Amino acid sequence: MEAWHERALKLFPEHQWAYDFPDATVSQVLFVLHDSVAAAHEANDVDQLKKIYGFAEWCHSQKSSDPDTWMAAYMAFYEHLVEDNATYAAIPDWLTPKVFEDVLPQFQDRLENKEKYPMERPGTFEQLLRRYDSAHGTNFWMRRNEWRE
């Protein structure tokens, strides 16, 4: 059993159906968790939020040892956080500066590219940067041009 599978089974036995078949992928688990994270925010379920964000961060930390798991965290979980009011608002509270910086190009694309992502946005990229900087004492807003294409 792969490390992500063991970890997911231990943390999220209620979602066993999502990864208890032979072709299950970490991306599928992270998609399920993304669906669960907004509900956990709405319910202020801090224990569940710690598990979800902790699992995503662990997946993100696997870049050198398991690039597929790292990429799954990026594509199946983190990049979608800016699509929902609750998760967008919670980004400064739950993402470390390292994870935040790694995902910034995708956050910017999703929040600013209205043709590619014709969705209602919970806020702007600039607002997100300023809120994150205020919460963490970082300077992402001042460095925002680094993520421009």
The N- and C-terminal alpha carbons lie at a distance of 40 Å
Number of helices: 7
Number of extended strands: 0
Taking all Cα atoms into account, the compactness measure Rg is 15 Å
What letter string, H or E per element, gives the SSE order? HHHHHHH
Helicity level? 55-70%
Give a structural overview.
- The protein has 149 residues and is mostly helical.
- It has one domain (3-147).
- The chain has helices at 3-11, 26-42, 46-60, 67-77, 85-94, 97-112, 125-136.
Secondary structure topology:
Blueprint: H1 3-11, H2 26-42, H3 46-60, H4 67-77, H5 85-94, H6 97-112, H7 125-136
Question: Quick gist of this model?
Answer:
The protein is mostly helical. It has one domain.
Describe this protein with a few key phrases.
149 residues; mainly alpha
